[in-house]
Amino acid sequence: DQFEVLERHTQWGLDLLDRYVKFVKERTEVEQAYAKQLRNLVKKYLPKRPAKDDPESKFSQQQSFVQILQEVNDFAGQRELVAENLSVRVCLELVKYSQEMKQERKMHFQEGRRAQQQLESGFKQLENSKRKFERDCREAEKAAQTAERLDQDINATKADVEKAKQQAHLRSHMAEESKNEYAAQLQRFNRDQAHFYFSQMPQIFDKLQDMDERRATRLGAGYGLLSEAELQVVPIIAKCLEGMKVAADAVDAKNDSQVLIELHKSGFSRPGDVEFEDFSQPMNRAPSDSSLGTPSDGRPELRGPGRSRAKRWPFSKKNKTVASEDFSHLPPEQQRKRLQQQLEERNRELQKEVDQREALKKMKDVYEKTPQMGDPASLEPRITETLSNIERLKLEVQKYEAWLAEAESRVLSNRGDSLGRHTRPPDPPSSAPPDSSSNGSQDNKESSSEEPPSEEGQDTPIYTEFDEDFEEPTSPIGQCVAIYHFEGSSEGTISMTEGEDLSLMEEDKGDGWTRVRRKQGGEGYVPTSYLRVSLN
Q1: Rounded distance between C-alpha atoms, residue 175 and residue 135, angstroms
Q2: How many Cβ atoms are within 10 Å of 38's Cβ, its own excluded?
Q3: Which positions ≥6 away from 317 have C-beta within 8 Å?
């Protein structure tokens, strides 16, 4: 008898389902907007230039920042995944399920209303038959009274009496029929009413209960999808956060200092003392060899308008220089690096042209052996062009090699103090390791050089070609551990990482350099102040 209550409750349940779907939909919009803002933020702060063209990308601080941005971008992707999962598994599926529930509910309530209407219709028929029976009974009683009064009336004719009796008999018969109809209708209604309350409506209510419980269970599962969508991305988000932590730990201040030094060291020699010029003496004054204006070869430079070497003066403003093909406008160290890059680039282009020439030759041979595949003469222009490019690149390689040799000689001549003065990672010393000068091949090379070293060997730099000057491999005389990172970018030196175990091949001879051998192979000189040494 609580049909209306169930109707209101089931409607409330479907409305709650729709409200949850709407909530999840707005939640996905929030996630998508959040992810979009994160991606825009990452895009805003990512470097605009490629890493190979950006000198700042060499610093660990910049690399860590870029890695953090990438992790944030991956984190934004996980937020998008959460939004997508919620949209598909909650919004779309629950909307479809809500439509199915509404149709099922409508069907059950239509069935219930039909049953109610049928019962109400039977009750109306019962009432009608009851009123008809009541009316017929009154009419029959009235007809019987009329017939009895006429029968006792002496003035009434026999025909009137017979007519009244027939009418009373007819009314009595009609009342009897109405009574039977009313009894049958009452029996039918009681049967229908019992079926309605004991069978029909309980079945409909059971169906509504099952529907509502299934809806509630599905809604509860939809609630759980919120946490499931988050839990699915937790491992990836944890990796993103771990990547940010790794990026933070990867910042190496000492290494960044070394990178800055390597990027910007000029290669100029340290200026000597400024010599006193006595203007009280009427004589020609020439600057000393140690003055700032004296070239490294010892030849005095004439000072005059436009002849001052401003780039040798560390405190003067930098003059604007015009870029030249040999990069002579750059400091010696930077000039050497740029020339080395250009030389490597030309060699790559040259190798590419050589490979193309070989491929064209093979193709021409194939065409000559199998004419149907192509005309060999059609390849001649390309072969000629390739040969021309090869010749041009060879000339450029020779040109850059000459410039590079000149730049390296200038860098070597500008090397100043030894490593012994520095507590931080120093520049390479000006003197070569003693064993290099003791080697026979080294003596031959030094004797054939344009400027032979002095007796003390102080003018021979560490950057001489050690790869060919090392003696035959000997057994280590001890072990050592690198306490700093060192980038052995020059000839004769070798790179090592902080904490790396090395074999000690030769002790420091007083010039600040020690010869070591790496476990994975390779031997060279590293700064002694970078090592913790233990002799055998």
Answers
A1: 8
A2: 19
A3: none
Chain centroid to CA 224: 28
521: left (phi over 0), alpha (psi -120 to 50) or beta: left
CB 60 within 8 A of CB 251: yes
Q: Is 506 helix (H, G, I), strand (E, B) or coil?
A: strand
DSSP annotation string for 253-319 = HHHHHHHHHHHH---PPPP-PPPP--TTS-S-----TTSTTS-TTS------TT---GGG-TTSPPP
Residue 470 and residue 493: Cα distance in Å, rounded? 12
Cβ proximity of 259 and 59 under 8 Å: yes
**The two three-digit tokens of residue 85, written as one number:** 């999962």
Over residues 82-127, the pLDDT tens digits come to 999 999 988 999 999 999 999 999 999 998 889 889 999 999 999 9
Q: Residue 88 has what DSSP assignment?
A: I
Mean pLDDT for the stretch of residues 186-191? 92
pLDDT recorded at residue 236:
93
Amino acid at 217: T
In this structure, of 11-15, 234-238, 472-476, the range with the lowest mean pLDDT score is: 472-476
Cβ atoms of 437 and 457 within 8 Å: the answer is yes
Helix (H) or strand (E) holding 523: strand 523-527
Q: How far apart are CA 350 and CA 390, in angstroms?
A: 6
Segment 201-210 mean pLDDT? 91
Q: How many CA atoms lie within 13 A of 499 on its CB side?
A: 0
Strands 513-518 and 523-527, bridge-based pairing: antiparallel
Q: How many CA atoms lie within 13 A of 282 on its CB side?
A: 0
| Helix (H) / strand (E) containing 141 | helix 93-152
Phi, psi angles (nearest 5°) of residue 513 = -125, 145
Helical axes 201-249 vs 93-152, angle rounded to 10°: 160
In 3-state terms, what secondary structure has residue 504?
Answer: strand
* Sign for the pseudo-dihedral over CA of 488, 493, 495, 499: negative
Confidence class of residue 407 from pLDDT cuts 50, 70 and 90?
A: confident
Rounded-to-10 torsion of CA 6, 12, 16, 19: 150
CB-CB contact of 271 with 314 (8 Å): yes
Considering only residues 153 and 222, tell me which one the structure prediction assigns the higher pLDDT: 222
Name, in order, each residue with C-beta under 8 angstroms of 237's C-beta and a sequence gap of 6 or more.
Answer: 75, 78
Would you say residue 247 has pLDDT above 70? yes
420 vs 357: CA distance, rounded Å: 53
Which residues pair with residue 365 across a beta bridge?
Answer: none
Question: Hey, what's the torsion of the CAs at 310, 315, 320, 324, to 10 degrees?
Answer: 60
Residue 309 above 60 pLDDT? Answer: no
Quote the CA–CA distance of 436 and 371 in Å, as a whole number. 61
Residue with tokens 């064993």: 435
